């Protein structure tokens, strides 16, 4: 039985779309750009175990956004979004990971910000979305090194000085869980280091320190003049107990602690890791000094949440579920974050679904998922009292989908990757999202009573 439900969003709610540099830019050897760990990873041959890299060309060309800046911005204008979340390529701005900066890279992002300003689209800028300069991996071992937080601070200072006057929302990094666990633990993703849990937890330790350094840099030296806000994009799944027993419920809490709480608790609560991690991991988990705890605590001006296909159902190791059941309940996750982290302001900086890589303009399956996400989001705001002030659909256009390569598509706009001009063609989700933004209300169709 079909049911039509409507619910409005608060006035001034932010609607946007997002992308990541390595997924869309291409131009991997243009304009003085240096190599990133993703460039290296994508070009290496298949391993003896048969674990092939993400594809023969990875993000070498991808959606060719580097050469089609105004094409992408026209897509934003057509959607009518209030903001655009995108990432800067560290290796494009600092080819060797450190000074001197690359003038062509600075000019490229300067043009993008100028065009966004002309259209009245708010930039939400991610400093680091997984594409570490290869030079830093070679010289120091990447995030396994305690040197990296200081180098990340230097990179952030360059970005704040050059672009901060035009940016109100900064994200230091995206999904540090994936960077640490799969970059330095399992080796599934770049830089492909199979260091096991010990190295993964060490990398995460340095990622947290790096984030805190950048937040304090902005707070102490740039916030008074630029008046922006800084956070970190944290990704999570949702988990529910197999049976409603005290033990299973505690295992669900542990699952969220080991993924989201790993980074959220130090930043939003007390500067330290969740107790369930400390008691279960023993000497594997590094320790923060009391001074470091004070330094990390409170280093986010809002809670930036990613909830979608990248971590949920794809990159969450099964043992992190602690034998409980994964779910796509955004509303319950929002309620948990609201309760666990003292009712923070929440900005959803990545959400939506994916369709097959062969899909062209008809992506109704994605629309149905997004409609449900929209409705549960409005319910969380209106009925649960969760303070969500913005939503970012992922992504603006089709691109290179990390470990999935080009086998899936997540864009609102279709990209023919085989074509020379890489024109954007609107999918059915463009019309859906346009209407959602225009009306500022969730419209959920074809929802059975049983699903409610």
From TrEMBL:
Protein name: Klotho
SUPFAM superfamilies: (Trans)glycosidases
Biological process terms in GO annotation: carbohydrate metabolic process; fibroblast growth factor receptor signaling pathway
Species, as recorded: Zonotrichia albicollis (White-throated sparrow)
Gene3D superfamilies, A to Z: Glycosidases
Family per similarity comment: Belongs to the glycosyl hydrolase 1 family.
Pfam families from the UniProt entry: Glyco_hydro_1
GO molecular function list: fibroblast growth factor binding; fibroblast growth factor receptor binding; hydrolase activity, hydrolyzing O-glycosyl compounds
InterPro entries cross-referenced by the UniProt entry: GH, GH_1_N_CS, Glyco_hydro_1
């Amino acid at each position: 039985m079909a049911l039509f439900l409507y619910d409005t969003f608060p006035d001034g709610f932010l609607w946007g779309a997002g992308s990541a540099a390595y997924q869309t830019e291409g131009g991997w050897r243009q304009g003085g750009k240096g190599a990133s760990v993703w460039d290296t990873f994508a070009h290496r041959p298949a391993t003896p175990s048969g674990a092939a890299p993400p594809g023969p060309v990875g993000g070498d060309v991808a959606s060719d956004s580097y050469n089609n800046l105004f094409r992408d911005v026209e897509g934003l204008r057509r959607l009518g979004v209030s903001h655009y979340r995108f990432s800067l390529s560290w290796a494009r701005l600092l080819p060797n990971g450190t000074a001197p900066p690359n003038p062509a890279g600075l000019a490229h992002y300067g043009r993008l910000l100028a065009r966004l300003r002309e259209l009245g689209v708010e930039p939400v800028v991610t400093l680091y979305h997984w594409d570490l300069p290869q030079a830093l991996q070679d010289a120091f071992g990447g995030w396994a090194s305690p040197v990296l937080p200081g180098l990340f601070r230097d990179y952030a200072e360059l970005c704040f000085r050059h672009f901060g006057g035009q940016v109100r929302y900064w994200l230091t990094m995206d999904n540090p869980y994936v960077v640490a666990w799969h970059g330095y633990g399992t080796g599934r993703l770049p830089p492909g280091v199979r260091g096991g849990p010990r190295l993964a937890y060490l990398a995460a330790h340095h990622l947290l320190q790096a984030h805190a350094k950048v937040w304090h840099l902005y707070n102490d030296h740039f916030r008074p003049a630029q008046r922006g806000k800084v956070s970190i994009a944290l990704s999570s799944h949702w988990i529910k107990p197999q049976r409603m027993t005290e033990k299973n419920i505690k295992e669900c809490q542990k699952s969220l602690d080991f993924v989201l709480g790993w980074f959220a608790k130090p930043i939003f609560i007390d500067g330290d890791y969740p107790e369930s991690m400390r008691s279960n991991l023993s000497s594997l988990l590094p320790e923060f000094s009391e001074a470091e705890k004070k330094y990390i605590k409170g280093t986010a001006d809002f809670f930036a949440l990613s909830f979608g296909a990248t971590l949920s159902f794809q990159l969450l190791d099964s043992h992190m579920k602690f034998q409980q059941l994964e779910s796509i309940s955004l509303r319950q996750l929002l309620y948990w974050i609201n309760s666990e982290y003292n009712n923070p302001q929440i900005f959803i900086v990545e959400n939506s679904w994916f369709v097959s890589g062969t899909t062209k303009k008809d992506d109704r399956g994605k629309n149905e998922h997004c409609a449900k996400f929209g409705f549960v989001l409005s319910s969380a705001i209106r009925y649960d009292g969760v303070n969500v002030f913005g939503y970012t659909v992922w992504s603006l256009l089709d691109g290179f989908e990390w470990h999935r390569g080009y086998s899936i598509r997540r864009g609102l706009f279709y990209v023919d990757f085989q074509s020379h001009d890489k024109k954007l063609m609107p999918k059915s989700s463009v019309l859906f999202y346009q209407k959602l933004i225009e009306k500022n209300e969730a419209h959920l169709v074809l929802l059975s009573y049983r699903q409610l």
